[in-house]
Every structure is written in structure tokens, then in C-alpha cells.
């Protein structure tokens, strides 16, 4: 990993941990596989930190620019899937 997660200086330590964990789950979905329930729980915590849709899109865009991994398709797959793990191709 040669990039940085998009973070806000005003976030608390726990909020930073929650956001980093969510983006880490997105990475795992592309690089190996991620537990669907863990991903959805991480997304819920992410949404507590970043509740606004436009803010969410901004952070997703920044993360995709830095990492090459698109967050929205991962979340959509987790929501629509019944499988235990999510693996993006």
C-alpha cells in the first residue's frame, strides 16, 4: 500500500479507526475476500462518521483515486448478496 486514506483532521481517534477499517475492508474485497457482515458493519460505522451522501462520495472518490479501489460497488454487492464473503474481480 503506497497511498494514504482520505481522512479529516477534525475526526476523533475512534472515528479515524472506523473510517480506516471500512476502507481496509474495501481493499480486502478486491485483494482476497471480506466477510460480508464485517463489511456492512464497517460501512455503518463509516456512515456515523460521514453521514452526508455528498461527503461520502467525496471520500469514496479520493480513496479510489489513491488506491484504484471503488468503494460503492463493494457496498452495493454486500447489500445485494446473500453470500458470507464478498470478492470483487
Automatic annotation (TrEMBL):
Pfam families: UPF0223 (PF05256). NCBIfam families: PRK04387.1. HAMAP family: UPF0223. Belongs to the UPF0223 family. This is UPF0223 protein ACFQU8_00285. It comes from Lentibacillus kimchii.
